[in-house]
Amino acid sequence: MMDKYNYAFLDEGSKREIRRSVLKAVAIPGYQVPFGSRELPIGRGWGTGGIQLTLSLIGPEDTLKVIDQGSDESVNAVNIKKFVKMCTGVPCTTRTQEATIIQTRHRIPEVPMTNGQILVLQVPLPEPLRIVEPQEAVTKKMHAESDYAPIWLQLYESLIKYGKVTISAEYPCLVEDRYIMNPSPIPKFDNSKLHDAECLYLFGAGREKKIYAIPPHTKVVSLAFDDVPFEKESFRGKKCRLCGSTDTYLDEIFDSATGERYYQCSDTSYCKEVRSK
Amino acid sequence: MMLQETPVLSVRGLTVRYGDGCPQCASHLEKNRCTSCGAVWAANDVSLDVYPGEVLGIVGESGSGKSTLMQSLYFDLEPTAGTAYLQNYGAGKKSIWEASAAEKRHIKNTIMGMVYQNPIRGLRMDYSAASNIAEKIIAAGSRNAGQMTERAKELLEAVEILTSRMSEAPKNFSGGMQQRVQISKALANNPALLLLDEVTTGLDLSVQAKVLDLIRKIKAKYGISILLVSHDLAVIRMLADRTIVMLDGKIIESGLTDQILEDPQHAYTQQLVHSLL
Fold it and tell me: ipTM score of the complex?
């Protein structure tokens, strides 16, 4: 019996297979590459796609940051950090600037990412066409033929019913004028950070067994009609109650005791840094 | 007079066979089934022409191959043999059954319009009536939401559906309204040819009259060519300029509608006409 786990938990063969899929994903931006999702000591649907990417890429020189909904201290983020640290011994940080690999769920950090950094996103549903077509065999064909009318229909339906596009997270975008991609459940506020970025974005869906990527300086356009421009969330007139920032993505918090509504930065480490300046 | 014109649609030798067939098929057919090998010849060497601005009626009993013909033309099933040329596709030189998947989609969206007997096949029941029309316009390449809404209004008005209900889903509409939405959807991109497959079957008489009246108006207004399948001779008499009679997958008689109804030549047609009139 094995008394010790391999470096970074997964065996070297598995890591190589995942890295091969990553290379393919980088070569075809926005295309979902199938991969053999491995068993992990946590359930599928809990970020296993992201963890497998992190584990297969991480080395002794790396510094890791894990965020969940913008927070470094949430249960999920803390436990993923503990797990990776246990099987690799790499240092962890909460500072975006210091990290080489950042694993995240639901947010892209406020601090602009730089060349050499990798952002690993955990994806629950990688297929942007799934809401309009339940069969994988059909969605694959639709991608192959660029048959994207149904997804535009989804946007139009929202316009005709509510007068505006109501999709707030997982807002579909077109990558390099070819593939329509689901940017994982980040708010559409973060969509613009995907376009012409310095860093590498990797998306891993463990349960759905798919990996896809946006390499640096890739063209990423959020879908919008010619006469209805894409709009991200507006926090006009609102600011973070802790650091006073007005240009960040704000969480709305409701205090049931006082009935008060206030706003604060969703990116906790950014908020802290602004305050300490 | 019509013969000098180039047909909008020209079908030659359409055959749809279920089963491998055998050398005895030609002589051992009982109805449309080969007694020797059991192959079913759903459509057997069907040829026809539809000329600009005319309504070509197709009558025949259940299993005579009417819907097989329609579904082959709209790519819902793949024919065993035969060619079909559309004036507006490949300069009328390339058979539509040799088209690529993307070309077939283009033909379905812009050159032909289809109205099914059952609106569930032609409509997205959960999407608004306006979206159903917009879907066709999106598929044709437009990304202007305002134009789509204008066109949807215009078409819904043409089929006498209140524009105040355009954001409602067809599942909430009556059968006759659903059929009218389906017709407006089929007309979205001004197709050259409209395929109507038993559009009034299953509707009550007053609604039938309304839909038939609408088709007549559309024909007069848009000058569109129509291929009309029906087993109802009253519908054929009212709408069709020329009529083709099908039996057991074959065309047994064709000519001007009045001629077919007043002076039927084939024994089956005689029986059909006399059973009704």
Answer: 0.85
